[in-house]
Structures are given as structure tokens and as C-alpha cells.
Specification:
mainly alpha, single chain, about 230 residues, globular
Length: about 230
């Protein structure tokens, strides 16, 4: 009689692999655009400050004034444009994630990207001038920078409570919102934060970039978790 060997049934892994995103899946495209845009914005701003030297005063001068740095001032609009691409990445990943974020959050994401594009296209003026370009620059920047923490809080509210990174997104959004509030106070009460105005804006830039990156990563992670189940 032939020996019959019964092979044990394969045991399902307790940690199933996360499905990969094939190109050009909207989540893959959105993550690529978003993270590339965020990284590019940080790189341009960092290089601008390194190469501009004494041409800019990062402690007291607003970030927008870096556009006047000789030879390297173009890095400012390039960085903002990269940040706008990051905003497009947020829009793409949020739309493809399946999260019930609602129209207000999506509107905020669109305002973020559009506002940043306008900031890059319409430069500010030297202090003491008030051209139409400078007005568009300032209002567009205000809309975009306020929209980012609002979108983040709305998205965090619909993420699963056990979702890793949810609390980090909430904390980053609240810190960013607080910095935006400080910036608003500095605008409406001139002289209040003048000695550290530049520091506030640069910390705000980093926090805004962090929030954008978290929005992208968490949107993709939630979508992958949903596909796995």
C-alpha cells in the first residue's frame, strides 16, 4: 500500500501583507506627487537659505522677502510651486482613499493647492509697496496656510480611532493652527512679533509641510488597509 503523506494546511499570516499600489493607480500617483512636492519644497527653501547668506535675515524678515535674494531668489517661488504640487498630491490621495471626508475638507485641499500656485505666480513687493501682485500673494498665502490645518483636523476626525498616525496628524494640525494664529496676530497688530517674525514663518512652513506629508501617508495607508480587508 502506498504511503500517503498529508501536508499540513498553510497557516495564514497574522500580519497579512499590504497590497502594493500598481502604477498608475491614483493613490500611487498622488503619493508620488505629494511626497515629491513636499520634499522639493523643503529642499528649495533650505538651499535658498544656505546660498543666500547675509542677503536674507531669517529671524526678522518674512519668508516671502527671500525672493529678492540675488541670483538665488528664484528658489522661493520654486519651493512654493513644489509645495503646490504636494497639495495636488493631497487632493489625489484623498479622492482615491475612500475616506468620508466631506466636501469642506476637499474644498480646503483645493484651496490649498490653488492658493500656493497663486503665491508662486504672483510675487510680493519690497516693503513699502502694495501692488496688485503683492495683494494676491498675501491673500492667497493666507487662504492656503489656514486651509492646511483645517483639512488635517477634518480628515483626522474620520480616520479610524486605531489608525496609527491619527493623533500625530491631530497634534501637527493644532500646532500649525496655533502658528497661523500667531501670524495673524502679527499682521493685525504690527510690531507684536517683529523681532521673531521670520522665525515664526519658517517654523510655520515646516509644520505645514509635515501636515501635508501626514495627510498623504495616512490617506494611502487607510486605503491600503481597506483593500486588504
Amino acid at each position: 500500500m502506498a504511503n500517503i503523506v498529508v501536508a499540513p494546511a498553510p497557516v495564514a499570516s497574522a500580519h497579512p501583507s499590504v497590497p502594493r499600489l500598481s502604477w498608475p493607480h491614483p493613490l500611487a500617483v498622488g503619493r508620488f506627487l505629494g511626497l515629491t512636492g513636499v520634499a522639493g519644497a523643503f529642499a528649495f527653501m533650505l538651499l535658498l537659505h544656505l546660498f543666500a547668506g547675509s542677503a536674507i535675515q531669517p529671524v526678522t524678515e518674512t519668508l516671502s522677502n527671500a525672493v529678492f535674494a540675488p541670483q538665488v531668489g528664484w528658489m522661493f517661488p520654486a519651493g512654493v510651486l513644489s509645495m503646490a504640487v504636494g497639495g495636488v498630491g493631497v487632493i489625489t490621495t484623498l479622492r482615491a482613499s475612500g475616506l468620508p471626508i466631506g466636501r469642506v475638507a476637499m474644498l480646503g485641499a483645493w484651496l490649498t493647492a490653488l492658493g500656493l500656485f497663486l503665491v508662486a505666480l504672483f510675487p510680493t513687493d519690497p516693503i513699502g509697496h502694495a501692488s496688485l501682485s503683492a495683494q494676491i500673494h498675501r491673500y492667497a498665502a493666507a487662504v492656503a496656510l489656514v486651509a492646511v490645518p483645517v483639512v488635517a483636523l477634518l480628515v483626522a476626525a474620520v480616520l479610524p480611532r486605531g489608525q496609527r498616525g491619527r493623533r500625530m496628524l491631530q497634534a501637527a494640525a493644532m500646532v500649525t493652527g496655533a502658528i497661523v494664529l500667531l501670524t495673524g496676530v502679527a499682521i493685525f497688530l504690527p510690531g507684536t512679533f517683529d523681532p521673531v517674525r521670520g522665525v515664526i514663518q519658517r517654523v510655520q512652513l515646516i509644520s505645514e509641510l509635515l501636515v501635508l506629508a501626514l495627510l498623504i501617508q495616512l490617506s494611502v495607508r487607510c486605503a491600503q488597509h481597506g483593500r486588504r480587508h
